[in-house]
Design brief:
The complex is a heterodimer. In chain A, 85% of the residues lie in helices and 0% in strands. By secondary structure, chain A is mainly α. The longest helix of chain B is centred in the last third of the chain and has 38 residues. Chain B is mostly helical. Chain B has 10 helices and no strands. The chains are: A mainly alpha, B mainly alpha.
């Protein structure tokens, strides 16, 4: 009990430090750059009550959902395939890893030329950001399955289906969940950047539009909302990751 | 009799064949206009245009600006990240407190802050370096912490047995032992600094390679745009390849010890 209280107070200190930093930035830069915390919260409350705000949230969430589903299915599928076919996996892994390090923002024009303005370009942009980490984590998970588990499955004469559900899945799911957490964050990043350039709707559009119209409260509030959403979702997935990792450990 | 090539050699040659094959396929598709010239220019055209631009010195200014910014962001992040990592490692309470912060750091889509940074620092190199730093420092911190965590206890005991001073212990035991993780940290911070700076230039800037791509796109100069993209891509892949190679060697040497 005491420990958790201590942890809560630590978190509170961090939060207060962040707010102090924010207020400090406001004091340094002034109204033209950023609105202070209290004013931002008030504006955010006003924004959440505004009916014209919600279609933008909906647009972002729709693109994000599509991109996430494609990243998840494609990433896990490719990762499993490359992990099970060792040779193909060894050939492909460094290529995929170096795709991870290129600044994908610069590929934005290609996406626009291929998909045109609108939903599909946003989704594609989310996918090229989010799918790679899912592939890499899944691939690593399959490659690192202890061979003894597979030998046991063979010794017990399990059918391929049984092997998949009782041996492979429990062995790889913790790592896949970790990959999904990273993929989730990057997919969101990709979709938002997509909206910042080539969209007439969505939260990314509101941020860039706020800049162009010098609507500082709008930019700061939407940025805050996006960050709170990303951190909250990450926290939930982190808790989930810890649970599946622990479940995996007790099994071995 | 010809000796069977080893598996590692076959993997490498298959990889090269795959990459070359994909580029050739792209070339053919572009030449046959299956991919419209308005969408993409053939890879050979990208390459010749890239070489021409580089040799003609047309993009020397942009290259210099981007290199300076990435260098500044990387250097600052490596030093700061290392020091912060070591500091946090030494203070368990602080570490527990900022652990959730570090874990969710890369979940925050930092590019949404970029406009704020421009408003704070002005439209110059500083916001670009700042976003590179914000991106790269936590990676270096996390790697430093991981490296220091994995210094074997027995080596610390060896240091005590030999009555090493604190400085000697750090120099002879801690740093060499943590080296592979520190190097991974350097590799990641380079990649993040590079991504941060180029993306920042692309979004809002007045110079640098990222800006060059955005500008060429807006003025429909497809050839130039693809040439610059290819340059950025090659630099990223080349630097990452070299660092990865060194990282692998370092890790293997550490494993042998």
């Amino acid at each position: 009990m005491r420990v958790s209280w201590k942890r809560q107070s630590d978190n509170l200190v961090i939060l207060l430090l962040a707010l102090a930093l924010w207020q400090g930035l406001y004091a340094y830069a002034g109204d033209v750059a950023i609105t202070p915390p209290w004013q931002t919260l008030r504006y955010t409350a006003h924004l959440l009550g505004d009916r014209s705000f919600w279609p933008n949230v909906q647009a972002t969430m729709l693109a994000f959902l599509y991109a996430l589903v494609i990243s998840a299915i494609g990433g896990v599928g490719l990762g499993l395939l490359l992990g099970l076919r060792r040779f193909a996996g060894d050939v492909a892994e460094p290529v995929i890893a170096s795709l991870y390090t290129i600044p994908k923002v610069t590929l934005y024009p290609v996406m626009l030329l291929l998909f045109g303005l609108g939903l599909s370009a946003k989704v594609a942009f989310g996918v090229i950001h989010g799918m790679i980490p899912v592939i890499l984590f899944t691939l690593a998970a399959v490659k690192n399955i202890p061979p003894v588990l597979l030998r046991t499955a063979r010794a017990l004469h399990l059918t391929p289906m049984q092997t998949a559900t009782t041996v492979l899945a429990p062995a790889v799911i913790p790592e896949i969940v970790t990959g999904m957490r990273v993929g989730f964050a990057l997919t969101l990043l990709g979709v938002l950047i997509g909206e910042m350039f080539a969209s007439q709707r969505g939260l990314g559009f509101l941020i860039i539009n706020g800049i162009n119209q010098h609507n500082v409260p709008m930019t700061t509030s939407v940025t805050l909302l996006v960050v709170v959403f990303a951190v909250a979702a990450n926290g939930l997935m982190l808790a989930l990751t810890r649970r599946v990792h622990r479940a995996g450990q007790t099994m071995h | 009799m010809i000796a069977m090539p080893s598996r590692a050699t076959r993997v490498i040659w298959t990889r090269i064949a795959f990459v070359v094959g994909s580029v050739l396929l792209l070339e053919v598709l572009c030449r046959l206009h299956v991919i419209k010239p308005l969408t993409m220019v053939p890879p050979s055209v990208m390459l010749t245009e890239m070489v021409r631009l580089t040799l003609a010195g047309e993009i020397s200014g942009d290259i210099a600006q981007t290199t300076t910014e990435v260098g500044a962001a990387f250097g600052f992040s490596a030093v700061t990240g290392f020091m912060l990592g070591a500091l946090v490692h030494a203070l368990p309470r602080v570490r527990r407190a900022i652990d959730p912060l570090l874990a969710s750091w890369y979940a925050v889509p930092f590019f949404v802050f970029y406009p704020l940074l421009v408003a704070l620092f002005g439209l110059n190199s500083l916001p670009l370096i700042a976003i590179g730093v914000v991106f790269a420092v936590p990676a270096m911190m996390l790697s430093t912490i991981a490296g220091l965590d994995r210094v074997p206890r027995v080596l610390r005991k060896v240091a005590r047995v030999h009555r090493l001073s604190a400085v000697q212990e750090v120099w002879l035991i801690t740093l060499p032992s943590a080296a592979p993780h520190l190097f991974t940290g350097l590799k990641l911070s380079f990649a993040y600094a590079f991504i941060g700076v180029i993306a920042g230039e692309f979004i809002l800037s007045s110079g640098g390679l990222g800006y060059g791509i955005a500008y060429a796109y807006e003025s429909f100069e497809n050839k130039r745009m693809y040439a610059l993209m290819l340059l950025v891509l090659l630099v990223a892949v080349a630097v990452n390849g070299v660092l990865q190679f060194c990282e692998g060697r370092l890790a293997r040497r550490r494993a042998r010890l």
